[in-house]
Design brief:
The complex is a heterodimer of chains A (201) and B (174). Chain A is α/β, with parallel strands linked by helices. Chain A contains 7 helices and 6 strands; from the N terminus they run αββββαααααβαβ. In chain A, strands 1-6-5-3-4 form a 5-stranded mixed sheet, with helices on one face. In chain A, helix 2 packs across helix 6. Chain B has 174 residues and is α/β, with parallel strands linked by helices. Chain B has a domain of 99 residues: Nucleotidyltransferase, domain 5, CATH 3.30.420. Helices cover 29% and strands 18% of the residues of chain B. Chain B contains 5 helices and 6 strands. Chain B has a 5-stranded mixed sheet, with helices on one face. Classes of the chains: A alpha/beta (201), B alpha/beta (174). At the A-B interface, helix 1, strand 1, strand 2, strand 5 and helix 7 of A face helix 1, strand 1 and helix 4 of B.
């Protein structure tokens, strides 16, 4: 009787399908990833148990940093171009097509309208370095109110979100809320971090 | 893997030198490593990026004062957010010179008060949140959070009055 030969299996396996799958996933994640827009300031938001997510589009973000400076940002390139036109008309400043283009690519900014032209003329690297004074919110130059009002006229669906640093004085936030209420905005969002809801009440 | 068996060494006289045919298979392990690394990177950077928000509705401001209904003292509770993360509360209205109680943001602080029967069993109880100018924004978010956790429906953010400030300085001191 001949001996039964045990078939020796080859230990290396074909990895082609695995590679296919992996590259499919890589492509998927690369396409769905949205690059985080570079913000003018970093703020450390307080945390809350709220689980409402902020919408992706049509959001005005009013950022207040820990030095009580106010920054304004809105999404949508068309909205921003139309908005700049309206502000230019109101303040009597002309902006070139190139400046409008630059403005439409900014995620947020914190300079008074009078300095906006020179701010837009800077190189993008220099713009990151420069110390932005914040948008005036006092009652004599209430520029933030104008920005909010004109944005709402440009895009009526817009939602307003306030992103404040946790160490900001309440006074500044109160002033921002007052400005919004003067413009008949009574509903807005406060951007916060995640926090676990306590279970034992 | 498919290996080509070469015929025994130098048997025969000057056999034809065959070009060594290399295998067509490549080792794909490094490729897999790289792909897995990229997947991990993209997975970690994309998700969990969206911030949470807290929605608040403010009361419409310019209502005719004559049309507003005055709040009864038995249905009012005021929380005052002070400097340096201090927190005080009192029941009733400021005119009656109520007793100011010091509390805290901790779990056994103001939350206990908000779930106490005095607040919970009274449907008309309205919580007024008044922040001092030097209070931090975090304090305001924290207190709104506490109100949400304790499921307090009736509350309002009110600007602090001089009477309230006086009450704090009188009873707590600086």
């Amino acid at each position: 009787m001949p001996k039964v030969k045990v078939k020796r299996k080859n230990p290396s396996l074909d990895m082609t399908p695995m590679v296919d799958l992996f590259f499919l996933l890589v492509t998927f994640f690369m396409l769905t990833a949205t690059a985080r827009p570079d913000e003018a300031v970093v703020v450390d938001t307080p945390s809350s148990v709220s689980e409402i997510k902020i919408p992706d589009t049509n959001v005005i973000t009013i950022t207040v940093d820990k030095d009580n400076r106010v920054f304004f940002g809105v999404d949508g390139q068309q909205t921003k171009e139309a908005l700049l036109d309206k502000i230019a008309g109101k303040y009597g400043i002309g902006f070139t097509a190139e400046e409008k283009k630059t403005f439409s690519l900014l995620s947020n900014f914190g300079v008074p309208v009078s300095q906006l032209k020179s701010f837009l003329a800077m190189e993008s690297s220099a713009r990151k370095e420069v110390n932005q004074p914040g948008i005036p919110i006092d009652s004599t130059h209430n520029e933030l109110g104008d920005w909010v009002l004109q944005t709402r006229l440009t895009n009526p669906q817009v939602v307003i979100a306030i992103k404040g640093d946790q160490d900001v004085d309440y006074e500044t936030i109160q002033r921002v809320i007052d400005i919004l209420q003067e413009r008949k905005v009574n509903r807005f969002n406060l951007i916060t971090d995640m926090e676990n809801k306590p279970q034992n009440l | 893997m498919a290996e080509i068996q070469e015929k025994g060494g130098d048997s025969g006289k000057g056999g034809k030198k065959r070009a060594k045919r290399s295998s067509t298979k490549i080792d794909m392990t490094p490729l897999v490593d790289l792909a897995a690394l990229l997947i991990t990177f993209f997975m970690l950077t994309t998700t969990f990026n969206k911030p949470q928000t807290m929605e608040i509705n403010m009361p419409v401001k310019d209502v005719d004062p004559a049309e507003q209904i005055a709040l009864k003292a038995s249905n009012a509770m005021t929380i005052i957010l002070g400097e340096d993360d201090n927190l005080y509360y009192y029941f009733g209205l400021v005119e009656d010179n109520p007793e100011l109680v010091e509390s805290s943001y901790a779990a056994d602080g103001i939350r206990k008060v908000l779930v106490s029967p005095r607040v919970k069993s009274n449907d008309k109880m309205t919580v007024l949140v008044k922040a001092m100018e030097k209070a931090r924004y975090k304090n305001m978010v924290d207190i709104l959070d506490e109100l949400k956790i304790t499921d307090t429906k009736k509350f309002a953010l009110v600007e602090i009055s001089d009477d309230d400030k006086k009450l704090v300085t009188d009873q707590i001191g600086n």
